[in-house]
Description:
- Chain A: Pfam families: DUF2243.
- Chain A: This is DUF2243 domain-containing protein.
- Chain A: InterPro entries: DUF2243_membrane.
- The complex is a heterodimer of chains A (155) and B (242).
- Chain A is an all-alpha fold and 155 residues long.
- Chain A has one domain (13-147).
- Chain A has helices at 2-5, 8-37, 50-79, 85-110, 123-148.
- In chain A, helix 2 crosses helix 3, helix 2 crosses helix 4 (85-110) and helix 4 runs antiparallel to helix 5.
- Chain B has one domain (29-76, 101-239).
- Chain B has helices at residues 2-22, 29-47, 56-76, 79-86, 89-99, 102-107, 110-126, 137-159, 170-193, 202-230, 232-239.
- The A-B interface holds A 7, 9-10, 43-44, 50, 53-54, 56-58, 60-62, 64-66, 68-69, 71-72, 75-76, 79-80, 155 and B 171, 174-175, 177-179, 181-190, 192-193, 206-207, 210, 214, 217-218, 221-222, 225-226, 228-229, 234, 238, 241-242.
Amino acid sequence: MAEAHARPPARRRLLVSGLLLGLGTAGAVDEIVFHQLLHWHHFYDRASGAAGLVSDGLLHAGTFSAAVAGMALLADSRRRGRFVPVLWWGAVLTGVGAFQVWDGLVHHKLLRLHQVRYGVDLTGYDVGWIVPGVLLLAAGVALLLRARARPVPAT
Amino acid sequence: MTAAALGVLLAAGTGYVAATWRCRSPWPLARTAAWLLALAAAGVAVAGPAQAHHDLRAHMAGHLLLGMVAPLLLVLAAPVTLALRALPPAGARRLSRLLRTPPARRLADPLVAVPLNAAGLWLLYGTGLHTALAGRPALTALVWAHLLVGGYLATASVLAVDPAPHRRPVAVRAVALAGGAAAHDVLAKALYAYPPAGTVGAEAGARLMYDGGTVLTLVTAALLWRRWYVSRDAVRAAARPA
């Protein structure tokens, strides 16, 4: 049993894969839902200043790069026969939740780089963005804690 | 001016094809095709849109062809590998010694080549240099060469198709690629928000730069990780019982 637990590299690779894909998915959902479907956000919102431009560009490049890297690491974990669904899904949800909470608290409220929507009272929108983020993050962490008790399958 | 640039591209194409005949082992046709397509892309850019300094949209189409599409295809054509196989032994030894010199190694490092390429772009668009190019053929040629060579060095350092001494780990190369993409995205948004004086079509041009850059970076990232996945080291590590 101790031996089954003593394989940190395989676990770490799967964890990193899930986190990266979670961040990538959250970034993609953010762009598809808010930019393409709802049109609440635009390529450039006059309300956001230079810091908003920089954070947008960084986030866009960072999230799609993370998604590609996450898929490659997932393929490698599967090839090694080290796929643990509960660990991977926990990491994905943690990644999505972390993105949303970070975006909601740091970008929207702390730094005020951009907002969920413009020209309306934000309270409802902020709650609607941050609370699901916290729930996703909590669910992810709960799954990760459960995964700690399970051994990585032997090859 | 354009004729001279097209002449250089033609010479590069002829040289590559001649080298494939002299190559000591059969040379994959796909690589030759990549090289010729790259030169065609660069030729189209030089002959047409890259000359439009004031119409940012046409200019960006040329910029994408010359600075991203052509370099990616040039890298996939593995010109250094071909040169090493086609040159006579003494020449090949000299080339491989040259590649091991400190300056060459630094230029092959993604942590140097990618920031240099991004800095060149910011200089070009951030300082209004690119509108100053109109009517200055020598300066224009220099900028074209910089776009193509800078793009090639950055892509080559990330993808590492040709042999390179002391290659950086895949994660470092992926981060360098993402960093370059971020600089490209931020520049595109900045051009949209603050269009350079004396240009039209800035908004469409910036969108084209942003979307085109995203697509090409995604393709490059996919190639990078695919090459890692099938690399001898990764396959061996996966087969090894832990």
